[in-house]
Amino acid sequence: MQTLPQTDRNHLSHDAALMLLAVLPERIRDAYLNYAKQIDYSIEMVLEMALADFLDPDSLTFTDCQPQIGLPLNELDE
């Protein structure tokens, strides 16, 4: 697996959000863009909220995200 560069960002950048949108199927991209417009949030915030919620349903953003999936099974029991 390729090693990704470390970042000290606590939130998804606008450029990263645009790169992610560029590789999504059109219907998914349009849904995210329409939702961002409907709630008057930036697209990076909408994508960050979706990603954080996938990993931790109790989180709103990366800042409060405590991933519950993708952990080794022995860590889930603690």
What does this structure look like?
- With 78 residues, the chain is mostly helical.
- The protein has 4 helices and no strands.
- It has helices at residues 14-22, 26-39, 43-55, 73-76.
- Helix 2 (26-39) crosses helix 3 (43-55).
- The protein is globular.
- The two termini are 28 Å apart.
- The model has no long low-confidence stretch (mean pLDDT 86).
Shape: globular
Strand content: under 5%
Secondary structure class reads mainly alpha
Largest sheet: none
Determine the fraction of residues in helical runs and give it as a percent range. Answer: 40-55%
Total strands: 0
User: N- to C-terminal separation?
Assistant: 28 Å
Please give the domain count.
1
Rg, please? 14 Å
How would you spell out the order of helices and strands? Answer: HHHH
